Amino acid sequence: MSDTANVDIEAEHHPYFRPKDAATLLLIDRTGRVPKVLVGRRHDNVVFMPGKFVFPGGRVDKTDCRIPVAAPLPAGLEANLLQGRPLISRARARALAVCAIREACEETGLCLGRKVHGAAALDGPWAPFAQAGLLPDPSGLFLVARAITPPGRVRRFDTRFFTADASMIAHRVEGVIHPGAELVELVWVEIGSEPLAGLHQMTRQVLGELERRLASGPLRHDAQLPFFHVARGRMQMDLLSGTA
Fold this sequence. Notes:
single chain; alpha+beta; Nucleoside Triphosphate Pyrophosphohydrolase; nine-stranded mixed beta sheet; disordered N terminus
């Protein structure tokens, strides 16, 4: 996607693919004077964006729809996720938030959760939560933006960009980051610093939106949400009204 809101999109070279629901998590550390975000450097040998710094994220998994959580989605977050077309169900909104937590744990080893009774029943990608006696906790997530990959791309995603404070990290899985992994390094970097200059154009736009919101005070669910998508053959940005 372009880093401007109203530009011609590239020619369509591929048949139409329906976008897959996906989620990305921007973890922030606000303990210092300048907020920091967590980025991971991709392995040099991967096909997509080798050696680049990225935020953890990926497609919604079937387990995201049915996994128990430590707390429900805040009403404002759920309402924000239900905005924009194509419309989704409340269950899908919950799965998107849970997906962001799972992907962060799988790719970085950092688990956003809460100690609760019964967590030991989790397995598969959620095993690290069970081992730590946790359930995923989406109650501290905020939606920053939504973006749909333009038609004509081999891979298309309908991505919701979430953010959460680093204080929500309840457990760290050792050994996830290593020289042979998809992410070979994790770095907390100040917003606006050099490693962030090489991010994907759309991700930079989302990061800019997060920076703007952080500068205005505590994060709120009633902030306007940018929604990037193609309409009438052109990329545009709609502003969705945030919900308190």
